[in-house]
Amino acid sequence: MKRKVLVILSNRWNPAQKAHYLEIECDEEGSVLRERKLRSLPAKSIYDEVWQNDEGKMDFAASHKFSRKYGHKLQKPKT
């Protein structure tokens, strides 16, 4: 089973810096299958999980620590 994850890369030390959004598709073990940059914040809630990194690193590979955002507005509602 594949999961879609929205990754938000922001900078807490410089809030004026624009956040970057990534859509990641991964398998059930957590291996990244596909990574795609998004131009802006998505409008629909289609993601299984939402992760955020606010250390100011604007690359997924350079980031070390992510926090999961439970109940985020872009996360799919549980059925």
Please, could you describe this protein's structure?
The structure is a single chain. The chain has 79 residues and is mainly beta. It has one domain. It is 0% helix and 35% strand. The protein is built from no helices and five strands. It has strands at residues 3-9, 20-26, 32-38, 49-53, 67-68. The protein is globular and about 35 Å long.
Give the SSE layout.
Layout (H helix, E strand, L loop, with lengths): L2 E7 L10 E7 L5 E7 L10 E5 L13 E2 L11
Parallel strand pairs: 1-4
Antiparallel strand pairs: 1-2, 2-3, 4-5
Mean pLDDT reading: 89
The count of helical stretches stands at: 0
Main beta sheet: 5 strands, mixed
Number of strands: 5
Distance between the termini: 17 Å
Share in β-strands = 35-45%
Query: Which radius of gyration do the C-alpha atoms yield?
Result: 12 Å
Percent helix, as a range, is under 10%
